[in-house]
Amino acid sequence: MSAKIRLSRHGKTHSAFYHIVVADGRAPRDGRFIEKLGTYNPVANPAEIVLDFDKALDWIQKGAQPTDTVRTILSLKGVMYKHHLLKGVKKEAFSETEAESKFQKWIAEKEAKIAAKRSGVDEKNRADQKAKLDAEVKVNEDRAAEISKKKTAEIDAKVKAAQEAAAKRAAEEEAANPKAEVIETPIEEVKKEAKEEAKTEAKEEVKKEATDETKEEPKAETEKKVKAETKEEPKAE
Questions:
Q1: 46: cis peptide before it, omega within 30°?
Q2: Using an 8 Å Cβ cutoff, are 235 and 226 in contact?
Q3: How many angstroms separate the CA atoms of 186 and 17, rounded?
Q4: Domain that holds residue 61
Q5: In the predicted model, what is the mean pLDDT of the chain?
């Protein structure tokens, strides 16, 4: 029986999740398998790989053949490199202690690269989130200014009409009673209060619009982010 290490697909549409399994080379891709070695989640960023290192190495040493995608995954986790070092020990190219030292050095460098990549991803996510929030604030401010301008124009028109009406009444009262004291309405003060009220109303209206949009907004479709832990990313079969 020729054993093959392959991916077995699970999960939902556009959200694939894989099991890393050892199966008979003649078995269907998602059919029965001999042993499960781990899981691979390409949707996460970076991709998440959980692997039983010792079992995977044991099967590789027994001659199990990984698919191209699984070979990339095993290389990322160091299984193929450890297999190469052990072959060097058998050929007496170097000692087992030297092989382990080389492997631990490789692991340390690999973990440093992964940490740097994860840090970069987190930083980019924070920057994108801040840019999004800044854009939303700018849109809300522009919308509030637009509404305030519109309401201010309406207030100016009403104030002008009120001034004309007041002037007309004053003229009529003066004509009817020339000696009566004319009391002037503080129009400028009224306009100032009205404009402040318009700004407040504009902000409240923008806030209400944003709330309504949030209630009606459909859930965004989850994007598939197939990314691996390094520049060379395993492709799903």
A1: yes
A2: yes
A3: 72
A4: 3-118
A5: 78
Residues 153 and 112 in one domain: no
**Residue 157 tokens, joined:** 């028109």
Pair 20, 79: CB distance under 8 Å: no
* 149 and 110 assigned to the same domain: no
What phi and psi values does residue 162 have, to the nearest 5 degrees?
-65, -40
Of 123, 191, 192, 122, give the one whose Cα is nearest residue 162.
Answer: 191
Question: Are 76 and 37 in the same domain?
Answer: yes
Q: Is 226 inside a domain boundary?
A: no
**pLDDT grade for 60, boundaries at 50, 70 and 90:** very high
Q: How many domains does the chain have?
A: 2
User: CA angle at residue 133 from 132 to 136, to 5 degrees?
Assistant: 90
Q: What is the pLDDT of residues 171-188, one digit of tens each?
A: 777 777 766 555 555 556
